[in-house]
Amino acid sequence: MPKGPGSAKRGIPTKEDFNAWYPAIVEIADLVDKRYPIKGMDVWKPYGWSAMGHIDTLVRTEMRNTDHDEYNFPLLVPHDLLDKENKLVQTLKMAREQGVDPSELRIEEEIGGFEKEVYWVKHAGEHDLDVPMFLRPTSETPMYTMFSLWIRSHADLPLKTFQIVNTFRYETKQTRSFIRVREIHFFEAHTAHADQSGADAQIDEDSDIVRRLLHDLCLPAIISRRPVWDTFPGAWYTNAVDAIMPNGRTLQIASYHHYRDQWARAFDITYEGADGSQSNCHQTTFGMSERLLGAVVGVHGDDAGLIMPPSIAPIQVVVMPVAAHLDEAVEPQASTIVERLKKSGIRARLDSRDMRPGAKHYDWEIKGVPLRIEIGPRDLSSDSFVMTLRTGGKDSHPIDVLEEIVSKSLEGVSTELRARSSNLMESKMAVLQSLPQKPSDLDEGMVYEVAFDGNDADAEKLEKSTNLTLLGDLLEPYEAPRICIITGKETLRRQHLARMY
Amino acid sequence: MPKGPGSAKRGIPTKEDFNAWYPAIVEIADLVDKRYPIKGMDVWKPYGWSAMGHIDTLVRTEMRNTDHDEYNFPLLVPHDLLDKENKLVQTLKMAREQGVDPSELRIEEEIGGFEKEVYWVKHAGEHDLDVPMFLRPTSETPMYTMFSLWIRSHADLPLKTFQIVNTFRYETKQTRSFIRVREIHFFEAHTAHADQSGADAQIDEDSDIVRRLLHDLCLPAIISRRPVWDTFPGAWYTNAVDAIMPNGRTLQIASYHHYRDQWARAFDITYEGADGSQSNCHQTTFGMSERLLGAVVGVHGDDAGLIMPPSIAPIQVVVMPVAAHLDEAVEPQASTIVERLKKSGIRARLDSRDMRPGAKHYDWEIKGVPLRIEIGPRDLSSDSFVMTLRTGGKDSHPIDVLEEIVSKSLEGVSTELRARSSNLMESKMAVLQSLPQKPSDLDEGMVYEVAFDGNDADAEKLEKSTNLTLLGDLLEPYEAPRICIITGKETLRRQHLARMY
Question: A180: which residues sit within 8 A by CB, 6+ positions away?
Fold first, then answer.
């Protein structure tokens, strides 16, 4: 594996070789330890867990600002609750017989599939359980069982809930830290509304929340309505958020689903209206996971290690005394700087380890700390400090304006990361005007934009010809009509083809 | 079931009938919903989850202040890792043959018992797993497997870790919210030290942490060194913290264990000293759980509902506009009060629901909000506000000193709760001078202090005669010798007998 400039001694592959860089950096930067003896279940180290905790805090703040309440549901789900989901299948079958929207038709094939992906608990102590249980992959079943008890009248609506919990999936594909794991640190919001328009408004709110989070994490993304066949079971439609990783593969980092009243019919979630009538609720869900951290690691890092967006950096500023043995005022000054920064709400850490400054730099560079401050005898005498940005640049500043400069510089790092990640994304995207003769004629590691308005069979043809997957309709269609790559008809539908994680 | 004054209409049993009051109040106050279809796995409602979150925050702050780092280990434990624990049993057997401290001898009987109390995962998807796994009851096995990889040299010590996670126990006894559940919200700290004195110092630190937490939660407790036969498997000794509930039963709300090097020998946790020699670490653990919330609910509540200690109250102050239809300045003033309180770091909530004030009071009383502020036209004209303490007392105060009065009053509620809970504890304790003729001669619902210095057989006799359980040696022994209740010999050992949860 090729090494980057100066990175040979560090054992970090160059980022150009992303498939080697990513699994190496998550351990070298001390985010996780993969040596736990179950594949796909990593140990979260303090630095990784802290970064994830800051992501959770951003999410919780968004939830609080939009009047969602935090719950915590049991991990174990009795298998017989799934009878309700089977009832969903029945409902959908009946719907098909009455000739409805094809979006409702593919669900029944998929809903059975989920049982192949769960961990089962059939024994406890020395007993066989009467009813087998499984570890939640997501929480529709446990939550909606309770929703049907909680929702009685229109006054109970909207019900806006979320939880941040561990979920489980028996992955048979190759696992990757944060990206494809078997124990997942998971966020899920579930809402219930009086009617479709209430759920529509929730989808809009979810969309706004996702955009704000992406801004905080300095990540650009493609937001699409997934094709019918990639719709979540029981959903009317699914919107999904895909980041583009440096190898050109897309990573789904969030999805939000409009259920209409399909799950409510299966779970008997009804309410009495002001006029005394009974109706089913309309529902939505919104899911995100530790993949957000995976995208942060993959998109922002460089040959020297991670680069943490300031919003989630466990340490935003590290302060290092330099040549402290030459002047006994150096250490106290470094401490004072840390205290001043903490006081103004900045996550600062003093590094007074007895090590060469170069070795310290190297440590904090790998960990992606946005700002490094050095303070030595010369800085003391000039009432200044030297600050280095992880994204590049080093300067001396007067100590008087410490807090102001640090705040501005953190904002500067965020802005720079947003510019870099947008450039990265653009460099990985191209427009596909016509089908390639064979899939290998396409540039590997690219995401292709296409005008596409075909049916299922057309989509299959398109995917086969490119060996890529359709992400679905971009939420912003074309403004002027284009020619569909398969049918040749005019269309505004703007879609993307990608190799997905 | 008897009802308290004014509580008949609320459906809350009187607290005198504690065994009816407790299970009722946890649902009426909206802490949990027990209707989830697995016994002992409650759904945490937002109010309960928020209170628990504030307890977690207190714990995390203590951990950070004492240089513990937060990790997150996988939930699933492969069964074959237990071979290490069996090695522990071997180690202990050998130790016995060499004639060691009897504290090491009872462990082997117990260590097998734990397999009877876990949930097993033997199937995933449609596959039988090669190696069965279990849901962690606690994390010694997964953690120490990793510790043996992480600890290499004396420079890696002390290693101070903790996590807050869900753990599982297949309870066969009757379950009770927070007190005896099958999915447990659990805190566990695990540390490794170079030698026994390092671990000794950790035990002292744990003891200090527990005392500070008890102070924050306004809970008194008995802290004892458990008898050898109640020592945690693999521990040299166990210190346990017992609260006394209003029915006189004790509830173990924390325990901390000195392992010496017993687990380290089983898990090969060794380090190289400065002189190049290899040694086993000495270890400690410290565990607490949602039982802390159970003790808060049980000890502080009254006939009218919960009383939340301000340190963990999800809402510390509720502000209610009164007769707002008579003066349009009332609502804005109520909002201003909430904003001012929030600004000074107080958890305040506006209740502007269109309901009778009496019904609102009733709601917040059940939920145990420490302070209620009312603001009506008359208060506006006198530049004042009316404040009611959940622990009793109602007064008008000038609006100028809002923040100061509220802070003082929150402190006042805490002080009052500490006084009440100490009185409760004292009222439930008595000294046992001599054995009763038969157990039923003792007052039911009392904890008895005894001077006791007997052996195993003496303890069995004592427990049989009283039908109570020995909690162990109080950390503060008698200052002057007493007569042992069984042997008649003089002793300083001060112990307690109780009916434990």
Answer: A40, A171, A173, A174, A501
